[in-house]
Structure formats: C-alpha cells, structure tokens
Amino acid sequence: MGQREYSAVAHYRRHGCGSMGISEGAPDGSWLAGSMVKKSRMLVAIALANKMARGIGAMLTKRENYRDPATVPA
Prior knowledge:
Elements: H1 3-14, H2 20-23, H3 31-38, H4 41-62
C-alpha cells in the first residue's frame, strides 16, 4: 500500500468514520459479517473502504447513480 492510500485511510479513521459499518454490525450472511469473524478489525475496515472506493469509481466512470442492492431486481 502506497503512502497516499495509507494517508487517506489514516485521515478517514481519525475523523471517526473508519469503522462505522463495522461498529454498527453487519447483516447476517453478508461478506462483511463473515470477514469480521475471520479477520482483524483494521483489515476489515480497509477492505470495506476499498470496496466502497471501487463502487464509487465505477459509478463515476459510467456516470450513473447509486442503485441500492436491496431494491434492484435480481
């Protein structure tokens, strides 16, 4: 992980947002709940941040709005 990425994660954690999804608990059966059982909290926080960044990057690239997975038909 490069210095820029580490700096962004450190900034995110300093402002209290880094483990928001982790501290509130994850839905049963989700990848986040499974990861929290097996991995350290910091590793899961970074994985969650990376997943969110990939989703945001894809939305910006395709110029589309967020689609909630719970409401999108399968």
